[in-house]
Amino acid sequence: MSAAATPRATGSGIPEADVTRLNEIASRHLVQPWPTAGQIGDESRGLIQSGEGVYVTDEHGNRLIDGPAGMWCVNVGHRCKALADVLYEQAMELSYNSPWYTMSASSATLAQRLAAYAPGDMSHVFFTTGGSSAVETALRFMQFYNNVRGRPDKKLILCREGAYHGSTYLSASLNGRPRDRDWMDGVDDLVVRLTCPNPFRRPEGVSAEGFTDWLVAEFEAAVAEHGADRIGAFVAEPVMASGGVIVPPAGYLPRIAELCRKHAILYVSDEVVTGFGRLGEVFASKDVFGVEPDMITFAKGVTSGYFPLGGMMVSSRLFEDLRQSNHPDAMYAHGLTYSSHPIGCAVALKNLEILEDGLLDHVRSIAPYFLEQLRTLEDLPLVGEVRGVGLMACVECVADHVSNNPLRLDTEVGRRIDIHCQELGLLVRPLINMCVMSPPLTITKEQIDTMVGILREGITRTQDDLRREGLWNG
């Protein structure tokens, strides 16, 4: 029997009357992320009742592999008692303290631990509540830094098409997915977008070997056009996660970092997804990609999703520049009620301990197998490319090779794959036509085999659907 055909373990589901009641409550009162105008305030979504290890259980008692690990975040897996115990113990000892005039032992200790892992001279951390607030914090710090140093015009931000950096006003302004910006405002006058570093979708006429040179030349042209004296920061995910797990071409990030140093442009590495084990390291910027940025933003895996926490690592050099300025009384008027939350920091410390105690080694050893098995799906006609690094990968399906607007069919492809896979025992996070796999880091080879087998069957069934309905002839 194939992995895809293996019956799922099932348990007792939520009583149907309770499911109906919860759906009605959600439709009346719960506003979900990313709603459309036609559904906003009147929508319910799939109900998850429990999780354990790499699995979640839905309202019907069906056990599903959590392919995206929640939102790239449940790194140590669901129902980790060690994290739950620490959360409880810290809450009973100190549930909250104001970061405006006090601190906790867990926040100070975590700052020290993270500084030991951060590249270069990053010895300071400002804790936030998540990834969006971490990126927002870094951008506001860049503005403050240049104001204090007498460079009030050095505020432009370089980012890339296809990127995702958050949902707060400044961070969302950097997002490079057009559908995210179609109906939302942003500070477009502060943002300069560069080409997505996706070798699979590189510009026509550019060779794979020459793509890095092309991207570097584009960056240099942008600096020449807008002026280095006006560009404050370059913000980049080491791997573009929500953009489709875009792994940059070799040498691209280090060469861009060199240009940033040359032109006094702060390099902000957005490691909200790639940090805390996803690529086998606590921070991937230097250890995986050879880059020492000026700031690193992080969130998600720092607590494995057990408590909202994020942060901004900052180079000591930048703080020294501020201390040496002519404005010692200038205030970085930025803070959050839940900055340095004692529970979040305590959970993060235990999470880091779990990563250090063999889980990082496990990721490094199993990642090649994970990618090798997923790449076997490239023999399916609907699959255009499988790409990834560490324990994050994307299976990009391409149904429409000729239309100028393939979005409608691509969206249908992703929707159907998701439905079929969920019926077979796998949660998929379809980004339109892209199936993103970023499972909990505890996943085993046997679980990878099951996951890939289900995904193969889900794509195969979708191919059959499209052929039968005359939507695709691949």
Name some characteristics of this structure:
seven-stranded mixed sheet, alpha/beta, four-stranded mixed sheet, disordered N terminus, 474 residues, Aspartate Aminotransferase, domain 2, Aspartate Aminotransferase, domain 1, 14 helices, 2 domains
Explain what you see.
With 474 residues, the chain is an alpha/beta fold. The chain folds into 2 domains: 3-79 and 358-468, Aspartate Aminotransferase, domain 1 (Alpha-Beta Complex); 97-340, Aspartate Aminotransferase, domain 2. 39% of the residues lie in helices and 15% in strands. It is built from 14 helices and 15 strands. It has helices spanning 16-29, 69-72, 81-93, 105-117, 131-148, 169-173, 178-181, 211-226, 252-262, 284-287, 316-323, 342-375, 407-424, 445-468, and strands at residues 48-52, 55-58, 63-66, 122-128, 156-160, 191-194, 231-236, 266-270, 295-298, 310-315, 383-389, 392-397, 426-427, 429-431, 434-437. The chain has a 7-stranded mixed sheet with strand order 4-10-9-8-7-5-6, with helices on both faces. Helix 8 (211-226) packs parallel to helix 9 (252-262), helix 12 (342-375) packs across helix 14 and helix 13 (407-424) crosses helix 14 (445-468). The longest helix is centred in the last third of the chain and has 34 residues, at 342-375. The chain starts with 15 loop residues before the first helix and ends in a 6-residue tail after the last helix.
Strand content: 15-25%
Instruction: Count every helix, treating DSSP H or I runs of 4 or more residues as helices.
Output: 14
Q: Which overall shape is indicated by the principal axes computed on the Cα atoms?
A: globular
- The sequence of SSEs as H and E is HEEEHHHEHEHHEHEHEHEEHHEEHEEEH
By CATH, the topology of the largest domain is: Aspartate Aminotransferase, domain 2
CATH architecture of the largest domain: 3-Layer(aba) Sandwich
Residue stretches low in confidence (pLDDT < 50, at least 5 long) are: 1-7
Percentage of residues assigned to helices: 25-40%
Structural class by SSE content: alpha/beta
What's the overall average pLDDT, rounded?
94
Please identify the top-level CATH class of the largest domain: Alpha Beta
Summed up, the domain count is 2
CATH superfamily of the largest domain: Type I PLP-dependent aspartate aminotransferase-like (Major domain)
The count of strands amounts to 15
| Radius of gyration computed on alpha carbons | 23 Å
